[in-house]
Design goal:
Blueprint lengths: L1 H12 L2 H12 L4 H8 L3 H23 L1
């Protein structure tokens, strides 16, 4: 049930590749390397992608709280 709530929250505040990367990392518990292999991205790109995804998530979450 918690995973479903997290997934719904990710979908509410992010989209596309950002949402997918967050789900792989935080719902499935994959490492950066595993996320990269699954998405066919370098480890460096995955880190940048997740940083941006978390920024977008936080911004959406913060705006909803205001």
């Amino acid at each position: 049930m918690l995973c479903r709530e997290i997934e719904e929250s990710i979908d509410r505040y992010t989209t596309g590749t950002y949402a997918l990367a967050l789900k792989y990392r935080y719902i499935e518990g994959l490492t950066y390397d595993q996320v990269g292999r699954r998405m066919d991205y370098s480890n460096t790109h995955v880190r940048r992608l997740l940083d941006e995804a978390l920024d977008r998530y936080a911004k959406g979450w913060g705006e909803e709280r205001e």
